Amino acid sequence: MLIRIPNVLSPEQVKRCREVLERAAWADGRITAGHQSAQVKRNLQLPEGTPEARELGDMVLSALNRNPLFMSAVLPKTIFPPLFNRYDADGEMNFGSHVDNAIRTIPGTGRRVRTDVSSTLFLSSPEEYDGGELVIEDTYGSHSVKLPAGDMIVYPGTSVHLVTKVTRGSRLASFFWTESMIAEVTKRAMMFDLDMSIIRLNADHPEHPSLVSLTSLYHNLLRQWALT
């Protein structure tokens, strides 16, 4: 289930992110890669725990908590603190095919997060760079994603994915993982479809008697399936 979430960050917030990232000290992106990913990862990353990473991470988390589409699609239990990466053309940077680690530990806490959902929040506009597409593979084939700055894509953490080589400019993004209250992707997709149907019905026919029963079904399924 690939879902585009538009306007997670406002233009003003994107501008602030860019200002902070322009003056930040970048490190080798392999600092957070697992053994397999480190073999194919060639990019730069903002070190965790720096003032810049904390400021921008808090901004992203606040935006996510206000975003109803993210909440509906992901049903978050725990969000891993957002990370930030950079792909430059002069370094011929890319990230080959890989699968994200199943478990991540939040630095300094010992708390483990199961990576049910992966997210990429674009901070560079598509016209600023060539290449750098996020390519996600699923049962329907490969999907190439390159979104406007401030937009985000969410997709199952189980997906094989890659970032193509940047051949012009620089690609900036935030990326992170979420442990969902519903671990199984099929059930999570069903809940999302049901929620979207309820929202559409309420918009078109706010007095429809089925709204109560459908909303009741949604919450009773959440009670049955949620891991809290």
Overview of this protein structure:
With 228 residues, the chain is α+β, with helices and mostly antiparallel strands. Helix 5 packs antiparallel against helix 6 (210-225). The protein starts with a strand and ends with a helix. It has two domains: 3-180, q2cbj1_9rhob like domain (Jelly Rolls, Sandwich); 185-225. The chain has helices spanning 11-23, 35-38, 51-65, 68-74, 185-204, 210-225; strands spanning 3-5, 27-28, 41-42, 44-45, 76-79, 83-88, 94-98, 103-105, 112-114, 117-122, 130-131, 134-138, 141-145, 152-156, 161-163, 166-168, 170-180. The mean pLDDT is 94. The strands form four sheets. Strands 1, 2, 4, 5, 6, 10, 14 and 17 form an eight-stranded antiparallel β-sheet that branches. Strands 3-7-15-12-13 form a five-stranded antiparallel β-sheet. It has a two-stranded antiparallel sheet with strand order 8-9. Helix content is 33%, strand content 31%.
Features:
single chain, globular, five-stranded antiparallel sheet, Jelly Rolls, alpha+beta
Count of separate DSSP helical elements: 6
Q: Radius of gyration, Cα only, in angstroms?
A: 18 Å
Q: Can you tell me the overall shape?
A: globular
Strand content: 25-35%
CATH architecture of the largest domain: Sandwich
Q: Under the CATH scheme, which class of the largest domain? A: Mainly Beta
Backbone structural class? alpha+beta
Q: What's the total count of β strands?
A: 17
Task: Kindly report the CATH topology of the largest domain.
Answer: Jelly Rolls
